[in-house]
Write a structure and sequence with these properties.
- By secondary structure, this protein is α/β, with parallel strands linked by helices.
- The protein has 10 helices and 11 strands.
- The chain has helices spanning 43-51, 85-90, 104-112, 128-139, 143-162, 193-200, 217-223, 235-240, 248-251, 270-281; strands at 2-5, 18-22, 28-32, 38-40, 58-60, 95-98, 117-119, 173-177, 204-205, 227-231, 255-258.
- The strands form 3 sheets. A 4-stranded parallel β-sheet has the order 5-4-6-7, with helices on both faces. The protein has a 4-stranded parallel β-sheet with strand order 9-8-10-11. The chain has a 3-stranded antiparallel β-sheet with strand order 1-2-3, with no helix packed on it.
- Helix 1 links the parallel strand 4 (38-40) and strand 5 (58-60).
- Helix 4 packs antiparallel against helix 5.
- The protein is globular, with a radius of gyration of 21 Å.
- The N and C termini lie far apart (44 Å).
């Protein structure tokens, strides 16, 4: 939500116009209407800003903001949970856009410095991606570009939806490996946008009935899904590790090794994940 305001944060340029923005934590923030110097503390935010062709505004990003590759040319302000607040301040930003993993103390420190910080966090449903694109578009003064990107993505999804089978044939079962091994088994439950991606690709998430991320090894082995989906960098290790190597999907070669950034982040590349998974399922 954005409303026009005449009040500017302390220390801000007097000739800069500001609006009132209510962020995803229901915080009311005075943000510039046309920011010139933006710091992103979220890989998803950074990627969306690039997708809106507003990357010329970016003057800072985290170590994890690595897509597109051009993002690496932007100065880093540290990690996500250990932001270098002093580094951010030294860049003299007129706006910081953060995600859900930034410690509250960092927000408070930036606010005390008079630096506007607005939070746009990951949503549980895939549809929330459109909301995030719209909000980031508002924050960086690119509402037309955001509307155009959303319309394009909705059109693509409409076409994909029309090509899904309409009969009652069972969908192939998929288990997405988020974490595995002695520390526990973790996956995306039914209340996640990753679950939506699996469903829109034509699969059935075997963990759709859980609401968290923890999944028991016993449940996985019993479900014995037709397909295993896993981050590309973890695929080889998973497939040779006991007892996962006894899963039918591993033994039959139905392991979908996917680029993690296309599915772990709520970004426009989620469309690529849907297309990629669907291609693997239809082979």
């Amino acid at each position: 939500m954005v409303t026009v305001s005449c009040n500017a944060p302390s220390g801000s340029p007097s000739n800069q116009a500001y609006v009132t923005f209510v962020d995803d934590y229901q915080r009311t923030v005075e943000v510039p209407t046309c920011p010139k110097r933006v710091v992103s503390t979220s890989p998803a935010v950074t990627e969306i800003i690039f997708a809106l062709h507003a990357d010329s505004l970016l003057i800072g990003r985290t170590d994890f903001c690595s897509y597109p590759p051009e993002a690496k040319k932007i100065p880093s302000i540290g990690g996500i949970s250990n932001l270098n607040v002093e580094k951010i301040a030294s860049l003299n930003p007129d706006l910081v856009i953060s995600g859900s993993m930034i410690p509250q103390k960092c927000h408070q420190q930036l606010e005390k410095m008079g630096i506007p910080i607005a939070c746009v966090i990951e949503k549980q449903q895939y549809e929330g991606l459109y909301e995030n694109i719209a909000k980031i578009g508002q924050l960086v003064g690119c509402t037309r570009q955001a509307d155009s990107l959303i319309a394009h993505m909705r059109s693509m999804m409409g076409t994909l939806g029309e090509s899904l089978p309409t009969n009652e044939a069972p969908r192939p079962s998929i288990y997405y490996v988020v974490g595995f091994g002695p520390s526990g088994n973790f996956t995306a439950g039914g209340n996640s946008f990753i679950n939506d991606i699996i469903e829109m690709a034509g699969g059935h998430n075997v963990a759709a009935d859980i609401t968290g991320w923890s999944y028991s090894l016993e449940a996985l082995m019993q479900a014995d899904p037709e397909y295993i989906m896993i981050r590309r960098e973890d695929s080889a290790t998973f497939c040779r590790t006991k007892p996962y190597n006894k899963l039918t999907a591993v033994k039959t070669g139905k392991v979908i090794a996917i680029e993690s950034g296309t599915i772990d982040l709520q970004v426009p590349r989620n469309l690529q994940a849907i297309l990629y998974i669907r291609e693997k399922l239809n082979r």
